[in-house]
Structures are given as structure tokens and as C-alpha cells.
Amino acid sequence: MKLQSGEYISLGKIEAELKNCHFVDNICVYGDSYHSYSVGLVVPNREALRALAERLSKPDQTIQELCSNEEINQSVLTAIQLFGVKSNLHKNEIPSKIKLCCEEWLPESGFVTAALKLRRKKIQDFYQIDLNKMYAIETTYST
Length: 143
Description:
Elements: H1 11-18, E1 24-31, E2 38-44, H2 46-55, H3 63-68, H4 70-86, E3 97-100, H5 120-126, H6 128-135
Parallel strand pairs: 2-3
Antiparallel strand pairs: 1-2
């Protein structure tokens, strides 16, 4: 994948490395050639997510609520980014934004093959709105 800056990144290499982070059960890194950063769709490790929720005083929330909670998302993103640095990934290889996905990626859902390889197109189609939001340019207009 070639980023806007002209640098190539290996999505498979990044995913293989970041799957070792204790918060990550599965990850699909996505890059857009019109931007200089990558983003990640993360299926969180539910035990690690629940432990984080306990630490952040959110013990009674459902997985769906935790995955959509901004504080939880930010904490997991920070952990993934620190893990990426410790794993010697380059700055442009580490996702700048993530979305925690409450859906499990199983062969039955069509997100992965029977060998548990990502079906990128299916994942991208399902999460396209979220990918667009992660790449949206935040603009403030003054009147």
C-alpha cells in the first residue's frame, strides 16, 4: 500500500505484529493513498477490554458500549501505538486512528476465510462508513 507521502507500507506485516498486542484479537489495517497515515479496524480481546473497563470505572457496560466509548478507544489506540513503537514499526506503519469492532470476525460472518485470513474487501465494505469517518477532515468554520 502506498501512502500519500509516497512511502509503501506492508499491511500484512503491520497486522501480524499488532496482533501480538494484548488488546488485539484481530486487526485490519487500512491505508488510503490520499492520506499520509493508516487506520485500523480492531477486534478487541474481550478479557483485556473488560479489564480496561474495570480500571476506567465502566464495569457494567456491554461490549458494544465499550467499543463505542471514546475513552476506551483512546486507551486501546495508545496501547497499540506504544506496542507498535516497541515492535520497531515505523511511525507511518502504526495506525493513527482505530475503530473497535464489536463483531467477531469468523468464517461464518464472512470477514475471514476458514484459515482465518482477512477478507479485506468484505471488511472494507462492511466498515466503509467508519473508515470514511476516520479519514474525515475535521474542519471548524468561524462566522
